[in-house]
Amino acid sequence: MAGLVVIGAGPGIGRSVAARFAREGLPVTLIARTPGPGVVSADCTDESALRAALDTAATRFGPPEVVVYNAALIQADTLGELPLKDLQEAWAVNVGGILTTAAHLLPATKTFLITGGMPEPKPAYVSLSLGKAAARTVADLLQRQFGPQDVHVATVTVTGPVAPGTFHDPDTIAEHYWDLHREPRPQWRHEVIH
């Protein structure tokens, strides 16, 4: 049975999304840098390792029905503070992994969701602002390319720090991913802002 793959399965949104889909009976594969129970370990900036992890997920349950790209490098940095090498490393996590995942799985995967953020750039988070703006553009490009092949691409744009018991509770945010996955094609949304 095809299931869900979550890339960037840390203790916040990634784990909450996995739990939400699992409650509906979908098998779940978590991909994260940190090894753990039920986790396929891979660094999303390592193209070969990420592709191998995606293949492992497909071997377990078949090609994934849903992919959630949730990996992000969140760090405070101002314009000119980071050397180019560090900006490129942030870009590799925030954007490069999305491109690798999409190239490896689309159009076979029918729901491709990206955790967005920074609906407006924040001067104290330059690398993340740039990465999330690019992620939104990638989502739009993927939707234009693969939407005609019945692939739903969307972002869930999170407007603040994720923490349990707050407006940005990861369990509440996870509902958006489930709702997007279940939307009938005529009602597809391409961004949900929370």
Overall description:
- It holds the Pfam family adh_short.
- The structure is a single chain.
- The longest helix is centred in the middle third of the chain and has 22 residues, at 84-105.
- Strand 4 (66-69), helix 3 (84-105) and strand 5 (111-117) form a beta-alpha-beta unit.
- The protein is an alpha/beta fold.
- Strands 3-2-1-4-5-6-7 form a seven-stranded parallel β-sheet, sandwiched between helices.
- The protein starts with a strand and ends with a strand.
- The chain is 42% helix and 17% strand.
- It is globular.
CATH level 3 topology: Rossmann fold
CATH class categorisation: Alpha Beta
Our count of domains comes out at 1
From the alpha carbons, calculate the radius of gyration and give it in angstroms. Answer: 16 Å
CATH architecture: 3-Layer(aba) Sandwich
Strand order of the largest sheet: 3-2-1-4-5-6-7
* CATH superfamily membership: NAD(P)-binding Rossmann-like Domain
Beta-sheet strand percentage? 15-25%
Overall geometry comes to: globular
Poorly predicted sequence stretches spanning 5 or more consecutive residues: none
Topology as a string of helices (H) and strands (E): EHEEHEHEHEHE
By helix and strand content, what is the structural category? alpha/beta
Total helical segments: 5
User: How much is the average pLDDT?
Assistant: 95
Helix proportion range: 40-55%
Number of strands: 7
What is the terminal separation in angstroms?
Answer: 31 Å
For the report, how would you describe the main beta sheet?
A: 7 strands, parallel
Organism: Actinoplanes derwentensis
Protein name: NAD(P)-dependent dehydrogenase, short-chain alcohol dehydrogenase family
Pfam family, one: adh_short
GO molecular function: 2,3-dihydro-2,3-dihydroxybenzoate dehydrogenase activity
